[in-house]
């Protein structure tokens, strides 16, 4: 596990961009943390690293937002509304096995659908409202290499 301290929104976007540049088709990232902890801000940077020009919005009300205009497609998912089930009906494995990168927020509600290899990123607030601690927990050799390169 690797921990990175970020002191502002810009650094969160820059780190997301760097991670995005290291990803390949079929990669799955799981983001967890409180509301407002920086998950969507990080995903904006990740999209930049995938050369996606679109404005990235939180998928809270849509469950899945798709962005296709980059080096790789980005599938941004918010599983919060699946707390009481329904994940198996969405065909998430089709996204996870696809030509794109999947980012899943609130993944504890779709744990049974996740592939064996993924990168978990835990967002933690600090006493300073602008500072965040990100913990990178790789599952699988590819993601161990991604974390090493950060």
TrEMBL record:
One GO term (biological process): tRNA threonylcarbamoyladenosine modification
Localization terms from the record: Cytoplasm
Organism whose genome encodes this protein: Limosilactobacillus vaginalis
Name listed for the protein in its UniProt record: tRNA threonylcarbamoyladenosine biosynthesis protein TsaE
Gene Ontology MF terms in the entry: ATP binding; metal ion binding
InterPro entries found in the cross-reference section: P-loop_NTPase (IPR027417), T6A_TsaE (IPR003442)
Cited PANTHER family: TRNA THREONYLCARBAMOYLADENOSINE BIOSYNTHESIS PROTEIN TSAE
Cellular component GO terms held in the UniProt record: cytoplasm
Gene3D superfamilies assigned to the protein according to its UniProt record, in alphabetical order: P-loop containing nucleotide triphosphate hydrolases
Keyword Nucleotidyltransferase: no
Keyword terms of this UniProt record: ATP-binding, Cytoplasm, Magnesium, Metal-binding, Nucleotide-binding, tRNA processing
Pfam families, alphabetized: TsaE (PF02367)
Entry similarity comment: Belongs to the TsaE family.
